[in-house]
Amino acid sequence: MINTIIMGVVEGLTEFLPISSTGHLILTGELLQFLDTEKREVFEIFIQMGAMLAVVWEYRLKIFNSLIGAVKPGVERNLFINVIIAFIPAAFIGFFLSEIIKTFLFNPIAVAAAFIVGGFVILWAEKRASMPIHSPTIEAMDDLTYMDAFKVGLCQCVALIPGTSRSGATIIGGLFLGLSRKAATEFSFFLAIPTLSAASLFSLYKARDNLVIGDMDVFALGFVAAMISAFFAVRGLLKFITTHTFVVFAWYRIAFGVLILVTAYFGTINWAGEHSI
Fold first, then answer.
1. Which residue, 24, 55, 126, 140, has most beta carbons within 10 Å?
2. Assessment of whether the complete model's pTM goes beyond 0.70
């Protein structure tokens, strides 16, 4: 039960930070020797939905207003449509290419490269954002146009590469597109709802033969742990970005990428297994 809670907390804390939850779950699962490979993969999919629910709860009023307001023109409808538009590219590419990506890119070198390259991209984005000429043109999430949302959706496609981080791709991509840190982060949170829901349900359907009633207590505990920790992570990140940049996450990613290379070289961690992207 302790290991289950640890896995859930790791998922919740890393899902919405630009550091890739996948890599952290692989590392934690291997160190804890948590479940067998097939059950762990299903467990990771399950707790991902717990983390997603934290965003639903945090933004429940805005989500409710957006759904109710979708029937008439206005800010609420625009947000609803923007999320759908941004969701489509990754959903389309992921549906057709997920197996190919797992086959050819889920290896230590590719995962480490994604961590390290992503770290340097964050450093570049923050340095660029500090220049007056590149100051944000979109201060609030509600100011996004349909084309802005589509571009963020294209950025999310990069996250199909293991180790990239869905949050990292959308948030940092948003910075390059002129979104403020707050607008990019909040839209990334909203975009996570359909993205994680669709990915989790699709993966659970494919792994339905590994779903056993006897495992439900473990899955439920991990689900709750992920939801609670993700709730604090989401609030913490929103507070953090008001006075800080994403530079600390960049250096963390680079260090984690080096860790992957070292542990893979010595055979300490199995980074090549099939895990949820």
1. 55
2. yes
